[in-house]
Amino acid sequence: MSVKAWEDGPSYIDMPRSMDSYSAPAIPDPEKLQRLDGARETMRWLRSALTEQRDGLQPLLADLSGLDADSREVIHQILGEGEVSISCSGEATARIQESVLAGVWRILYVDDDEKVVADLLEVAPYPHVLSVAFEDSRPLDTSTDEDSVELPNAMPILVELAEAARKFEADGTQHSINFTLLPTTAEELEFIEDRLGRGPVNILSRAYGKCQVFSTLTPNTWWVRYYNGMDKLILNTIEIVSVPGVVTAAEEDLRDSAIRLEEILEPYWQDEA
Hints:
Strand content: 15-25%
Helix content: 25-40%
Strand order of the largest sheet: 1-5-4-3-2-7-8-9-10-6
CATH topology of the largest domain: Ribosomal Protein S8, Chain: A, domain 1
Low-confidence stretches: 1-22
Number of domains: 2
Number of helices: 7
Structural class: alpha+beta
């Protein structure tokens, strides 16, 4: 599949940005939609994809890279910006924005100059690119050193995390640690974060308040932090899972999105009803 750079499309987040609540998008003029075959065909595809997608199935993707800029802009207006924004670095950098329809994701791949080289629409519980979050992971270092001696709570937590990561890979058992309930110091948390490392995925979610998630370099290990309306940290956790639940659309969410899409498009699709 060949793609070409697109410089005039909708703007997407640079992660992380502020955590302000999103606002609903403006709905485009129905007459404009009727004239844009690319946008119209994409909405047909999306209707079908939301009907076909079920929890656990392979993601369904449409390549929008070849559409004209007006069609892409209309698609962006219809889909809006939802609760989850993701940045994924690596060989190719992906900027991902959930739409106002849960489980419908707009994925932009950008080059080193931040020019868009691929524009995808995906229907899935979570974007497929998150599957690469731990491609460069490494076993967690639980060895002691001079620094760890001064941090008595840090090493037992690291040992627990290392064992939990091994168990998850073996049988899928999930695990979490809530630092909000533990007597860990700022120095111990910094030491743990340094040992875990920082992975390529950074996520901002507004689904349950304000939440920042980032992958670590330890397999299947995510740091999940919740903030209140004053941006004060209120819940600080590590989750050992494939993808944290705050990022994932459930099967009922996808069903609801299919219904909501019909409601959004109803004024524009009377000739196809």
